[in-house]
Amino acid sequence: MGPLSKKKETWRRITSRFSSSLRPDDFETWISPIRLTSLEADLAVIEVPNRFFADWIKERYLPDLRIAFKEVAAISPEIRFTVRRGQPDGGTVAPFLQGGLLPVPNPDLHPEMTFDAFVRSHSNAFAYFSCLEIADNNPRSYTPLCLFSEKSTGKTHLLHALGNRMAENHPDYRTRYVHADRFTSEFTRALRSDRVHPFRSAYAELDLLLFDDVHLLAGRSKTQQEFTLAVNAMLREGKMVTVTSRVAPFRLPDTNPRMKSILSWGLLAEIHPPEPETRVQVVRRQTDREGIPLPDDIIFFLAKSNDDMKQLLRNVTRVQTYVSLNGGSINLSAVRNLIRDPAGREAEIEDIQAITAGYFKVSVSDLSSGKRQRSIAYPRQMAMYLCKKYTELSYKKIGNAFDKKDHSTVIYAVQRIEKQLSRQDVREDLKNLENLIG
Q1: Strand 93-97 with 78-84, pairing
Q2: 130 and 216 co-located in one domain
């Protein structure tokens, strides 16, 4: 057996041990994504998706890894971790060095969500220029910056644009984008495993925190306290925080006064629903990017269909999918039928599960099972991704709908599909499913 085969077999046997000792959700979340990249008698290098992964595995699984190497390979190597830099298999990695680690690109930042790709208008100009000013000049008086609007108006896009521009201007800065549900999930796991210290350390070392949908912390008293501690510590150190919300901080429901107060210290930027001409620009940009042009009358009709940007883009995607599946032809009557929603309701999880199962020719019970073969795991991950995209439900509630799976499993599924969207076959599956859901 050659060195490469020996390394592969060693890692297979080690992960098999974890597979039999961990819950399936924990194995899928923490062990499946990591891999052994180098193995010598005195050194084993393990690649992980991000820094938080490394901290978690070192705190929770490092002793078991050492035992596994000794029992499986009869060696006791030093174990080091490297961070994957966002490329597909075989990408470059940055090593964890003594005393810390090298800055690495934020894997959660969407590279296409930039300031250049954002359609600026009167309705969002103040929020746009506030984020740009932070990225270019780092004014401490702007922090914390709260972007708020009741509807989907590009708040998340601006968070990613700020993070991407900051990475260009200050590659040494530690920036993290995190959604409220993910923060809650990570904190809950830290509490359950008595690992709150490394959780807090990960946030304490940030230079810029980009926190999405802070209003979803409503009613989560312990998570609110932890979030408030993290933000307060960052502000004391002169670091930067930007959050998004559906309402202004002082109007956050079921939220402790201290958290409301801290988020109100800095700059508040309300984003109003976009003007009709802005919506036309958004539709044109979407069609140009996808390479599926639409006639002007359909573009104007779509632009008038909704002033909620998320729903507007869903309508555009629905129409483009129809065009691609029907030889490029479409008319206004077909568009009206495609985007009509008499009940005015969002997609239901049960609908998404049934549509996804039918599309992939598997059963709904398979989607909720613990089966790991790709023919089942991929449809399950796609269904979870679609549930998160097309409903307002939390990761926890989505997990409950899949036979009470842990919310970390849903987070992993969403991230897995997002990483695979560079593949044409995955994009095609997603487009076809979105058309069916629409």
Answers
A1: antiparallel
A2: yes
